[in-house]
Design a protein that fits this description.
Layout lengths: L3 E7 L3 E8 L5 E7 L5 H12 L6 E7 L2 H7 L6 E6 L5 H4 L24 E4 L2 E2 L5 E3 L3 H14 L3 E5 L8 H14 L4 E4 H4 L5 H31 L6 E4 L5 E3 H6 L10 H14 L4 E6 L4 E7 L2 E2 L1 E7 L2 E8 L2 E3 L5 E6 L2 E8 L18 H7 L16 H15 L3 H23 L11 E5 L3 H12 L3 E4 L6 H6 L4 E12 L5 H21 L7 E11 L6 E5 L10 H17 L8 E12 L20 E7 L2 E9 L8 E3 L2 E4 L4 E4 L3 E5 L5 E5 L4
Parallel strand pairs: 1-4, 4-11, 5-6, 5-9, 9-10, 13-21, 21-22, 28-30
Antiparallel strand pairs: 1-2, 2-3, 7-8, 11-12, 13-14, 14-15, 14-18, 16-17, 19-20, 22-33, 23-26, 24-25, 24-26, 27-28, 29-32, 30-31, 32-33
Helix pairs in contact: 2-7, 4-5, 10-11, 10-12, 11-12, 12-13
């Protein structure tokens, strides 16, 4: 192989590697079981299985779930929070809404920092950024002494109005580093979330401090291991925003890596959308542990300026991904006489019962194996499955419902499908988006197995299964750019707006970002910037992000009329109504810089020269009965091939299931396209 662009994606069950040869345009894909106790070992094992020698790697990007798992499993470091005296309880007061209105046992999400570990520090900045009371430096030194004595792993600093003037936070950081050393983990709220809303900014700083040491240690160790193995390329890391940064930058801002793994699929979706000529796509990623849903709207990823994980809000640009605990390893169980599937997962160890590694609980993978939808000897990562163990697990569950084994297995899949369809509705219907106007793109090891059933339930007309579906998130990481998002508060009513001053601020933000791209080794000709503003109707609480054509646009005489109309369009699309002519207020300015380091190209395949003639058939259970079903290898399919369902398509990283009443075709990119027979 020649010059290689390589990506690595860690999932809850498998670790995927994709290598693209820039000279030949060819791909190699590998999958190895994830090693939960030592993730780096699984990464290096998967990498070595695909690339030899490792010295041929020219570009390397990694999607990691280390930070996300640390947060969700609550195994981060002990954090001390320094807050403004008199407002130290902001983090615990939080917000008032009950997110489950009719849950009588509802409890607010448990904060990461207990009250006893919050230190109120005298000193005050006002909302305009003026100092009202000097910072009491002795209080900061006393906090450092306590952190040293009690073994705190990190300190978060979040003072009132630091987004308007960060002087107190910066001085506190200087003192803490003097007392605790330059390598002690600190998180300053104005650096990780330079925005208004004290609780959300504080929560962002706390989460970064909580996961920071774990992420830094992991990336530092992986970087050293790769160097020891002879990998010459610097390691890049996916960000939650869909862009990439160097591992060094990721260690400085670990909060940006929270959704590092899942967003790769969405960014691959953006590239696929352009290649397919389809602007509106729903992406589903079903692996062994979870089911992720994201959108591409008008050819662009759906980016949100705030996310919430485990009930904790964070202010950061991130691809809007909705996740539920429904994967191939999701366990089927009973509660109050009803069938439940997930969120508990058998994971990589022991895994589903059919793995033969000691697992005895029935899972979605076991159910699909019983239904004949999985080839026992051609499963991901070279695993050979044991159907008799799957049947025993499903039969035991079926006895509780007085159902036969295949009927019980189909019930398990139906419940899992209902959970996943609900996740799709959450990110579409609940936001006023009609899923029937979208194409469903399925990937992940188990996504293509369930996609057509989800499309049938939601009324979606077409399902697309791209090449390498089991490693599509890793493939998507090869389609991204270096990215950094900058934000500055800018509170102005439309009547008080100084357009020239706004343009000057945007220009300065762009210069800062473009200079940063130079430190990421991006050539000057490959750098660019884009801009947006957070706007709301006057006297409202929340904002919408409205794109700007350029940094100079606010200086134009017609800007206020233009931006008001643009805001009304965005408001209408999001909420179904708008109020043209009403006063608007600017809240924040956003600048995003991009650096293009090249990407892997989605290649087009030659048309089929031979008719499709399946050689193998076996009975597969659909809709309450067994059907004689052709079994196909994906590498035997080419553009122009068509087949009426039922059908099973096997490949190394996934299995695609086409039920009766649907038809399969292959497009020029090698993607499988499934539609209802009366629509194909």
């Amino acid at each position: 192989m020649g010059r290689l662009r390589v990506s690595m994606d860690i999932g809850g069950t498998f670790t995927d590697v994709v290598a693209y040869d820039e000279q030949t345009g060819g791909y190699r894909v590998g999958k190895r079981p994830t090693t939960p106790g030592d993730l780096a070992t699984g990464v290096l094992d998967a990498l070595g299985a695909v690339v030899d020698p490792l010295s041929g790697i020219d570009f390397l990007v990694h999607g990691t779930t280390q930070g996300l798992n640390t947060l969700l499993q609550r195994r981060g470091v002990r954090v001390m929070l320094l807050a403004s005296a008199g407002a130290a309880d902001v983090y615990h007061i939080a917000r008032g809404p009950r997110f489950r209105m009719y849950d009588l046992q509802y409890r607010k999400p448990e904060p990461l920092v207990p009250r006893r570990d919050i230190v109120g520090v005298p000193g005050r900045i006002d909302q305009a950024g003026a100092e009202l009371t000097p910072l009491e430096e002795d209080a900061v030194r006393a906090a450092a002494a306590r952190a040293r004595a009690e073994g705190f792993g990190a300190i978060a600093v979040s003072f009132l109005f630091s987004y308007a003037n960060p002087a107190h936070e910066l001085r506190a950081a200087e003192i803490l580093r003097e007392e605790l050393g330059a390598d002690f983990a600190l998180s300053l709220s104005h650096q990780c979330a330079n925005e208004w809303r004290e609780y959300e900014r504080t929560s962002s700083a706390v989460v970064e401090a909580y996961i920071g040491p774990v992420v830094r240690d992991y990336l530092g160790g992986l970087t050293r291991d790769l160097a020891d193995q002879g990998v010459p390329a610097p390691l890049h890391v996916m960000q939650s925003s869909g862009g990439i940064i160097s591992a060094e930058s990721a260690r400085e801002r670990p909060l940006q890596t929270l959704l590092s793994g899942p967003v790769g699929g969405t960014m691959g979706g953006v590239a696929l959308a352009k290649a397919l000529g389809r602007d509106n796509l729903i992406y589903i990623d079903m692996g062994g542990t979870s089911f992720d849903v994201s959108l591409v709207i008008d050819g662009e990823p759906d980016i949100t300026p705030e996310i919430k994980l485990d009930g904790l809000p964070m202010l950061l640009s991130a691809v809007d991904i909705h996740t539920v605990g429904a994967g191939g390893g999701s366990v089927a169980w009973t509660e109050a006489g009803g069938l439940r599937v997930g969120p508990h997962s058998a994971g990589a160890a022991p895994g589903p019962a059919c793995y033969g590694n000691g697992g005895v609980e029935p899972t979605v993978t076991d159910a699909n194996l019983v239904l004949g939808r999985i080839e026992p000897g051609a499963f991901a990562a070279g695993l050979t499955l044991r159907p008799e163990l799957a049947e025993a697990a499903i039969a035991k569950l079926g006895a509780e419902f007085d159902l036969g084994t295949p009927e019980m297995a189909e019930g398990v899949c139906a419940v899992a499908n209902a959970t996943m369809a609900g996740a799709i509705r959450t990110i579409t219907v609940s936001r006023g988006i009609e899923p029937r106007e979208f194409t469903l793109v399925a990937f992940g090891g188990a996504g293509p197995m369930h996609a057509v059933f989800l499309a049938r339930e939601l009324g979606i007309g077409a399902v697309v299964v791209p090449r390498f579906p089991g490693a599509f998130s890793a493939w998507g990481m090869l389609q991204t750019e270096i990215r950094r998002d900058l934000v500055e508060p800018h509170f102005r009513l439309d009547a008080d707006l100084d357009g020239a001053a706004m343009s000057a601020r945007l220009t300065a933000m762009a210069e800062t970002g473009l200079d940063w791209l130079a430190t990421e080794r991006v050539p000057e000709a490959a750098r660019r910037s884009s801009h947006a503003a957070d706007i709301r109707y006057a006297a409202q609480e929340y904002t919408l992000t409205v794109p700007l054509l350029s940094a100079n646009e606010p200086a134009s005489p017609e800007f206020l009329d233009t931006i008001a109309a643009r805001f009304a369009q965005v408001h209408q699309a999001r909420y179904g109504h708008a109020n043209p002519g009403a006063p608007i207020e600017f809240v924040a300015l956003r600048t995003t810089v991009h650096g293009d380091l090249g990407r892997a190209a989605p290649g087009r395949l030659a048309e089929a020269t031979e008719p499709l003639a399946p050689q193998q058939h076996r009975p597969v259970f659909f809709d309450g009965g067994w059907h004689r079903t052709p079994i196909l290898r994906r590498d035997g399919l080419a553009p122009g091939h068509r087949l009426a369902g039922p059908a099973i398509v096997l490949e190394d990283t996934a299995t695609t299931v086409v039920p009766p009443g649907f038809a399969l075709s292959v497009d020029s990119l090698g993607s499988l396209v499934v539609r209802r027979e009366d629509q194909s």
